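Morning run. Coffee first, then this:
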Amino acid sequence: MWIFIVLSVVLAAAVIVLAIKVALLKRAFTEIDEQVKDHLDGTNSSAFQLSTSDRDARKLANDLDGELQALHAERVFLKDGDKRMKENVTAISHDLRTPLTAINSYADLLESETDEAKRKEYLERIKDRTSELKDMTGELFKYSVSSDTQYDSQLSNEDLDLQSMIENSLISFYKEFTSMGIEPKTDFPSEKVIINSNRKTLMRVFDNIFSNVAKYASTLTVKLTPEGVVTVTNDAPDLTPVQVSKLFDKYFTVSDGTDSTGLGLSIAKDLVAKMGGSISAALEDGMLTIRISLKKQ
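And here it is:
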């Protein structure tokens, strides 16, 4: 009799313990289920927290946590990669617009020019800009198939006449300057100023700066010193010192009403730095001056 009573008590205790364990496991799995959902929808990425000390439940939680943490890291990596790709495509799209603008200007000049020598010169410049477009699209393709997000073309340097480079870029914006009533004034030294750099990179710098002038200004003065310092000055009566301090920031635009990407001056700054030079901006009496210092040969 006593044996039966003892067995009944033991069995009852075992059932109670088992019921408690089942209840705790059920709660643990509910907690795991909720935290898995939080991880998957991105609202939580912290380690799993369980109210039970059950070894098997905690092992399951740890295994799931490890897999979900890896999934979260992959998600962040992909989002960052997508952002970098969009930024680079936007930057290259900006660069593609500049030679297209130049080709359009040369085409207008060619249409009204009667001097055969000048017409030949404009045709050559259109060919040069077309070649530049081809190279840029080639770079975009190389970037798209490259796994290196820091992809950069191998560029060759040559001795360049700074005055000639500036003049070629100014002519590229003939149509835009004319539409804005801008008559560029230049001040060049009597002797040639030669620097050793990449032609296309340097042209992109001047193009981006003059493109900015064509959007916002009505006057333009370009000076070149024998030391290789270029200053570009234009009227900017509505510009503030705070805005000037942000001119080289990526995606910063002075006016939301324009179709500007806010990349031109940012790209110019990066390119000048790659060439070992420096670029800065200053505002005085409503006149904006961009100063570019390049390493002379």
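Residues 142-153 have pLDDT under 50 and may be disordered. Good start to the day.
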